[in-house]
Design a protein that fits this description.
- There is one protein chain.
- The N and C termini lie far apart (77 Å).
- α1 packs antiparallel against α5 and α2 (64-79) runs antiparallel to α3.
- It is rod-shaped, with a radius of gyration of 23 Å.
- The protein has helices at 2-59, 64-79, 83-102, 108-111, 114-149, 153-159.
- The chain has one domain (2-159): Up-down Bundle (de novo design (two linked rop proteins)).
- The model has no long low-confidence stretch (mean pLDDT 88).
- By secondary structure, it is mostly helical.
Length: 177
Amino acid sequence: MFEASLVLLVLVLLGWGIVSYNLLVRDRHRVAQAWSDVDVQLKRRHDLIPQLVEVVRRHAAFEQSVLENVTTLRNRGVAEASPSKLGEVETALSAGVQRLIALAEAYPDLKASRSFLDLQANLTDTENQIQYARRYYNGAVNNLNTRIETFPDLVVARLFAFRPAEYFEFEPVAAER
């Protein structure tokens, strides 16, 4: 009787360990997939910014410092891998892009340019997509981190060296209209 109870207890613990491990792996993959979605949108944004800079440069040659700042921030954003540090760069880049768009008020020919208006619409759409992807990613990070930090899953997480994921904190500057 005691041996059967012991075998049953071991089987239950083993089953729980397997289920817990599989849930942790699932959550880790969700975080990776969600980050991939964020990365796709950031790359789309990074591809649009040089086009916007070039359109503004053609119409507003005297705004060189704004153009250089946006270009520098875009290059830093492309190179950064850490979600927390990338969030800081992307927030600054968003402010720079908003300054570029605000230049249209001072240059009527730029404001009327079809390519500028198209780029502005694409950037607005991309900013919205980044926010959707960021929310999903941060939700996936929250699920994984909660599972890693709560008992009894933390036992399996520590045993298999699961690590918490970083949140992606990025708040774009609201467009001034």
